[in-house]
Amino acid sequence: MSTGGDDRIAVEAAAMRRALELAANGPARGVNPRVGCVILSPDGTVLAEGWHRGAGTAHAEVDALGRLSPGDAVGATAVVTLEPCNHTGRTGPCAVALLDAGIARVVFAVADPGEHSSGGAEHLRAGGVDVDGGLLAAEAEEFLGDWLFAARHHRPYVTVKWASSLDGRAAAADGTSQWITGPEARLDVHRRRAAHDAIAVGTGTLLADDPSLTARGADGDLLDAQPVPVVFGRRAVPAGAALTRHPHAPIIVDGHDLDADLRDLAKRGIRSLFVEGGPTLASAFLSAGLADTVLVYLAPALLGGDRLAVGDLGVTTIGEARRHEFAAVERLGDDVLLVAHPVSSSAPRSSTPERN
């Protein structure tokens, strides 16, 4: 770009913000990330824009290049929210497409974490392209949050939720639990369900409560975004269960190896999982160190008894306590929502899924 250094940074930053806006046009769910691209002429004029529309379609860079005539991109700058990929999946490598088009400079926000799809920056530099990474990285990291987590850790981001009385009970002595919390808290739960790719219960909760696992508004109608229902356990979903009427077919996983189950869900395009399946399942995720966020809806009531919201976590002494830190405390009608994260992350390091 033939402008001065400060001017170039400002122009490229504006283009990156536009690329993030374009990326938001892509599907919010699926195995591939939402990516946007803006191609600038040497004087900073926008030549073309593009975004990724889902697995099997052109990536953002190729989508933008496809809007230009041959030769129009020679000497231009490509500003893209994610490092151009460097492998062939359902589509070809974007790094090669940019080189073939004559792009002279590439600016990206976040490095591609894929084991095979990464390396686009090095490939471009080897081809003589000027490459810079990290522009508006914080904004792009936040935008790509769940996808980046799943790509880096090969499992979905897991939120474990429960509602309890002040004394930590999830139900009364006779097993009744509807409703511990009030309508404001329940509406917040449905909003958070809709923000996740999937919602999970164990077969015990499925058989005992017959939950619909849908996300609904204040009027009871289904929200546009619905999480995919996931059932942990070996027992089949009963033929007449409410779950059989869910907009999405349920995914059944074994439940005896949570790490393997989560890896399987990630391969299916599940990047965020809302665990709402009762004390047994919640305790399993907490014990395994697989709860990235804990949501506790606390009602101003006392129930007593042994119907605890969380079961045995393998903690035998105070020094073994699973320490968390509060991220937020929110009043919801008569109830309080506590949002907490583990003090130390337990997210595994592993190979990562690729973009297709």
UniProtKB/TrEMBL annotation:
The keyword DNA repair does not apply. It comes from the Bacteria. Pathway: Cofactor biosynthesis; riboflavin biosynthesis; 5-amino-6-(D-ribitylamino)uracil from GTP: step 3/4; Cofactor biosynthesis; riboflavin biosynthesis; 5-amino-6-(D-ribitylamino)uracil from GTP: step 2/4. The keyword Oxidoreductase applies. It catalyses: 5-amino-6-(5-phospho-D-ribitylamino)uracil + NADP(+) = 5-amino-6-(5-phospho-D-ribosylamino)uracil + NADPH + H(+); 2,5-diamino-6-hydroxy-4-(5-phosphoribosylamino)-pyrimidine + H2O + H(+) = 5-amino-6-(5-phospho-D-ribosylamino)uracil + NH4(+). Signal peptide: none annotated. Its EC number is 3.5.4.26, 1.1.1.193. It holds the Pfam family dCMP_cyt_deam_1. Residues 10-132 form the CMP/dCMP-type deaminase domain. Its cofactor is Zn(2+). Binds 1 zinc ion. Keywords: Hydrolase, Metal-binding, Multifunctional enzyme, NADP, Oxidoreductase, Riboflavin biosynthesis, Zinc. InterPro entries: APOBEC/CMP_deaminase_Zn-bd, CMP_dCMP_dom, Cytidine_deaminase-like, DHFR-like_dom_sf, Eubact_RibD, RibDG_C, Riboflavin_Biosynth_HTPR. Converts 2,5-diamino-6-(ribosylamino)-4(3h)-pyrimidinone 5'-phosphate into 5-amino-6-(ribosylamino)-2,4(1h,3h)-pyrimidinedione 5'-phosphate. PANTHER family: 2,5-DIAMINO-6-RIBOSYLAMINO-4(3H)-PYRIMIDINONE 5'-PHOSPHATE REDUCTASE, DIHYDROFOLATE REDUCTASE FAMILY PROTEIN (AFU_ORTHOLOGUE AFUA_8G06820). NCBIfam families: eubact_ribD. In the C-terminal section; belongs to the HTP reductase family. This is Riboflavin biosynthesis protein RibD.
